[in-house]
Amino acid sequence: MDRLSLFKVLADSSRYAIYQEVARAEGPLSTAEVAYRLELHPNTVRLHLEKMREAGLLVVSTDHHGSVGRPQHRWAVVPQAPSLGLEPAGFRLLAHLLAELAAQSPLDPAQVVGVGRRRGQDHSVGRQGRRGAPQAACLQAVMDELADLGFDPSLEPDAGEEQATIAFTCCPFRELAALYPDVVCQLHRGITEGVLAGAVAATPGMTAQVESFGSLVDVDPCRVELSFNSR
Q1: Tens of pLDDT along 30-54?
Q2: Which residues is 63 bridged to in the sheet?
Q3: Which domains, from first to last, does the chain contain?
Q4: Is 229 helix (H, G, I), strand (E, B) or coil?
Q5: Contact 228, 141 (CB under 8 A)
Q6: What CA–CA distances, in Å, run from 123 to 34, 79, 91, 149, 162?
Q7: What is the value of pTM for the model shown?
């Protein structure tokens, strides 16, 4: 889901509060539990939960255990759900500390990129290939994956049959990238390379590679140039 559609779904204050409650919970919550915590009527909560499920923000499971009666529906955020700043404050502190420690150590840029590449490719595992021409399908897969990660990618108009440039209009790592670009921007490049590798693996008849990567140090917004070749 793109960011604009996401914000439209969560524009309702009650729905946003419900999403926060589910996202912060240690495990899936029932409709009744959400209603009790927020002092809302269960029917109201149920409608909002269903709306967010339809939008791809939540998943529902059925609990056949517990009290006698109809099985309970339990709600949780989807894997890779946008955090919207809901992560515990300790996570932000930990990210700053780890980035600072990494920046103080001698770093091999290739190793940093490699870490990001593995994570990017892991994120792509299990995604089905898109239909259509191989280059367009592969490019769309990359755009979708990067959007899921919060980079709000935008395809620049000079895209051709064998190359494309993607600008990142939103960087979820921007605060840390400005402080530790040698660590964070190299990880971002690796993530992009891994996502591209995953898209290629899911797109028969296509090879592709990252030709150049412009970080915050080079250009704002960041952008990546990709090249494509049909096998």
Answers
A1: 999 999 999 999 999 999 999 999 9
A2: 72
A3: 3-77 (1.10.10.10), 92-230 (3.30.1380.20)
A4: strand
A5: no
A6: 30, 10, 20, 9, 25
A7: 0.62
